[in-house]
Amino acid sequence: MPDGFTLSMILKGSTSVNAELYSRYIGKQVHSRIFKCVVEGDDVLYTALIDSYVKSGRVDYARRVFDLMLERNVVCSTSLITGYMNQGCIEEAEDVFSKTMEKDVVVFNAMIEGYSKQVENAKKAIEVYIDMQRLGFKLNISTFASIIGACSALAAFEIGQQVHGQLMKTELIEHVKIANITKV
């Protein structure tokens, strides 16, 4: 009988294939195997299962698994937030974010990136960016790329200049992804 580690590796392999239908099929099979074989769920297995459902477009199933977890980790929260944002389910993403107890830079970036993809929510991206700094998180490449996208969507030239100024004071300016954005 497969253990939780083996099943989590199967899930990770199925999502790396980049085939939505295959990932959806494997995810359901592994999920049912967990219950049939009474495999003890752990963070690694639940995270892989949530990620598999998110990548196959089944955020509803991912949420069910997430809700079953006794202790939710930030990796699962981030995956679920990304899935909700990609499907335009902003309120659901906000709910998961607000209930995430131990936030990190990646979960903040998921919110900023998700908001910045939609003009009507780009202002919220800036609000999360400001909160992130207020709470003392160190901004990274993804943070700057997403917030610059939000500023562009809003045509917020002054805020964009401030963000650019912050970026110029970091070692991140050397990164190609950001360097190309600032040349535009």
From TrEMBL:
Pfam families: PPR, PPR_2
Matches recorded under InterPro entries: PPR_At4g14850-like_plant, PPR_rpt, TPR-like_helical_dom_sf
Any GO MF annotation of the entry: RNA binding
Keyword Transcription regulation: no
Gene Ontology BP term (one): RNA modification
Origin superkingdom: Eukaryota
The UniProt record lists the keyword Chloroplast: no
Key words, A-Z: Repeat
PPR repeats: 42-76, 104-139
Protein name: Pentatricopeptide repeat-containing protein
Naturally occurring in which organism (per UniProt): Anisodus acutangulus
